[in-house]
Design a protein that fits this description.
The chain is of the alpha/beta class and about 325 residues long. It has 2 domains: about 1-175, Thiolase/Chalcone synthase (Peroxisomal Thiolase, Chain A, domain 1), CATH 3.40.47.10; about 180-324, Thiolase/Chalcone synthase (Peroxisomal Thiolase, Chain A, domain 1, 3-Layer(aba) Sandwich), CATH 3.40.47. About 30% of the residues lie in helices and about 25% in strands. It contains 10 helices and 13 strands. It has helices at about 20-25, 30-40, 55-70, 90-100, 115-130, 155, 215-240, 255-265, 275-280, 285-295, and strands at about 1-15, 15-20, 45, 75-80, 105-110, 135-145, 160-175, 180-190, 195-200, 210-215, 245-250, 305-310, 315-324. Helix 4 links the parallel strand 4 and strand 5 (about 105-110). The longest helix has 23 residues, at about 215-240. The chain starts with a strand and ends with a strand. Bound molecules: acetyl coenzyme *A. Acetyl coenzyme *A (ACO) binds near residues 38, 114, 154, 214 and 219. Acetyl coenzyme *A binds near residues 35 and 220.
């Protein structure tokens, strides 16, 4: 028998404030046409003044816990992916732990920017497979609006705030691809590309939060190549072929990156979950947000084979195959 991390609940939360492309055109030199054509984004949600990453994360976690129908105190591991923590320390995960009334187990953040959820899922899955945790809450939550230079049209139109979460439960499987749960994960990074996507501040450099800076074209080029590579690794290691994937849930950075990656991998466009049009790029929150949206609108069903992938600053990238 093999221990599997089975998804027993999912949830998400978006802040109330929705900012359309039309609203952005009132303060930077851009247009709805440019943003839609280059990115597919039509709108994004922004956290209210005083609304922090842990607040968004707690609401997404509560929704996932309610969906799972479990007592939150049975959760013995919280792994939270974010690049926009409430504080330099303590971790945002411990803030969420306290807000949920959980006082046992372990809670910590992981930082892999847009790949954060894949990293967090792989981490929690390995804790479960090692027998170190029985029930894990895996969260991706961001307030990227706080990192943006709202006068820089090349970056401020791309991102939004939000949170998504899943509950993983340790269950015995047969060790085959027919098992429910996380079937495999692949993580990669290459720190030589730091300058292509980074934040120009931090506690031990500028002692400020800083702003996001990006070489968009370079990121785009690496994204399609790296994402195709990590997914092909998943196909080879798992023996699964593209036509067996019921739902492809990529990181929601840009519609053109998603379409190009799906095409390169021979994944049917009808099987691709897209939320970037509605949410913008919510970094580590984008995959759990999209998973929860597709689960709760009836697309993702129990037993479906779901493929996730992401790339982010670092560069970091990775993929995971989940039988829901
Ligand atoms: N509105 C209007 N014009 C703009 C805007 C804007 N918001 N932003 C840039 N432009 C202009 C540029 O100034 C440039 O003008 P010029 O030709 O007069 O110099 C022109 O549009 C073209 O700019 P490019 O940067 O070449 O445009 P490109 O087609 O590469 O699209 C984009 C830019 C959308 C950022 C694209 O490169 C991209 O999506 N890259 C991936 C970035 C990404 O997704 N990052 C997220 C984090 S990483 C991840 O999640 C994978």
């Amino acid at each position: 028998m093999t221990l599997r991390s089975v998804v027993i609940g999912s949830g998400h939360y978006l802040p109330e404030k929705c900012m359309t492309n039309a609203e952005i055109t009132t303060f930077v030199d851009t247009s709805n046409e440019w943003i839609v054509e280059r990115t597919g984004i039509q709108q994004r949600y922004l956290a209210a003044d005083g609304e922090t990453t842990s607040m968004l994360a707690t609401k997404a976690a509560q929704a996932a816990i309610a969906d799972a129908g479990i007592d939150p105190t049975t959760i013995d591991l919280i792994v939270l992916a974010t690049a926009t923590p409430d504080y330099t320390f303590p971790s945002t995960a411990t803030q969420v732990q306290a807000a949920l009334g959980i006082h046992g187990g372990a809670a910590f953040d992981v930082q892999a920017v847009c790949s954060g959820f894949v990293y967090a899922l792989a981490t929690a899955d390995n804790f479960i497979k090692a027998g170190s945790a029985k029930r894990a809450l895996v969260i991706g939550a961001e307030t990227f609006s706080r990192l943006l230079d709202w006068t820089d049209r090349t970056t401020c139109v791309l991102f939004g705030d939000g949170a998504g979460a899943v509950v993983l439960d340790a269950q015995e499987g047969a060790g085959t691809n027919a098992d429910r749960g996380v079937l495999c994960t692949h993580l990669r990074s290459d720190g030589r590309h730091r300058d292509k996507l980074f934040v120009d501040g931090g506690p031990s450099t500028s002692m400020t939060t800083g702003h996001l800076r990006m070489e968009g074209k370079e990121v785009f080029r690496h994204a399609v190549a790296n994402l195709a590579e990590t997914v092909e690794e998943t196909f080879i290691k798992s023996g699964v072929s593209p036509d067996e994937i019921k739902w492809f849930v990529p990181h929601q950075a840009n519609r053109r990156i998603i379409d190009a990656t799906a095409k390169k991998l021979n994944i049917d466009p009808a099987r691709v979950v897209i939320t970037v049009d509605q949410h913008g790029n919510t970094s580590a929150a984008s995959i759990p947000l999209a998973l929860s949206v597709a689960r709760h609108d009836g697309r993702i069903e129990k037993g479906d084979l779901v493929l996730i992938e992401a790339m982010g600053g670092g560069f970091t990238w990775g993929s995971a195959l989940i039988r829901w």
